[in-house]
User: Fold these one by one.
Assistant:
Number 1:
Amino acid sequence: MKKKQVVEELQEEKNVEQPQEEKNVEQQQEEKNVEQPQEVEEDKKNEAMADLEKQILALEEENKKLVDQVKRTQAELINYRTRKDKEVSDLLKYSNQKLITDLVPIIDNFERAIKLDDNNLTDELSKFLVGFKMIYSSLASTLKNYGVEEISRQGQIFDPSLEQALLTDHVEEMENEAVIEVLQKGYKLYDRVIRAASVKVNQK
């Protein structure tokens, strides 16, 4: 009888433990089911963050390219303006070059005529050349006021940017390649040569 009672008690305990175990399994399954959506949600967030970071990097790269392009465009615009300003400045600065170039041979003719004067004021030629000298002096002064400068470098070393050598000679007392004689004056308009001087150069 006692044995039967013990068996029944054990059976009852087993029956009590079994629902408890089932309950624990169900609870674990429920917790697992709760954790799974949280993990999925976390993965989605990570993916979204990764995509967002890629988009940000792409936008930063595009922004950098646009900034560089704007800077290059600004630099090109500054260079263009500087170039155009110089062109306009040069156009104004040398606007009289054609007129002055045409006047230079007239100056040459005046100088040739004046060289004929022997400074004897009693002869007719000298009296006639007095007017020539006044006109020449006035014309030369006016050209100077407009930036015209003579190129006459007798005794100085030959400079091919200012002069052209038409003749050579040998003068012991002068340096090699020194200008012995100016055959025809040259002229500059400010810093631009409008006619190179024609010269005789010393050769040793």
Number 2:
Amino acid sequence: MEADQFKALFLQTVHNRDNPYHPLVWINGDPQIGAGTYIGGFSEVNAKGAKVKIGQDCDIASFVAINVADSHRRCIGLAEANDCADIEIGDCVFIGSHCAILGGAVIGHHSVVGAGTVVRAGVIPPYSLVVGNPMVVKPRYYQLDIEARERAASADDSP
């Protein structure tokens, strides 16, 4: 069996579709994913029922769940359908391994989400560090360092 035949059979077997990231990344719905973004194996991006927008040049590690749907109220009989809410991840965001990004989350550009963090609905400012469950947000944690680096690069480019 040729490699492309094996890949097609594998994707069919695991109910997945081909994507530019990894054969073991599950993409559901139609998320908007920016150029230069990496998504590691065994991650899922579920955009069924709401919008997912992931910026450019993000690094999403393995075993990350980005999921617009919350089924717990439906499962216990308190709702007829899943609750769904949009997710937005800015440019140049790092999301560590084994994180869950849940519906309603907005993560500002140049932020870092530490491994194992559960990000719930709410707005995280740009340049932030987010860690833990429950999550702790350190707003603008990286802002001064990044701005200093950008100023230094601009100074290097001047004649």
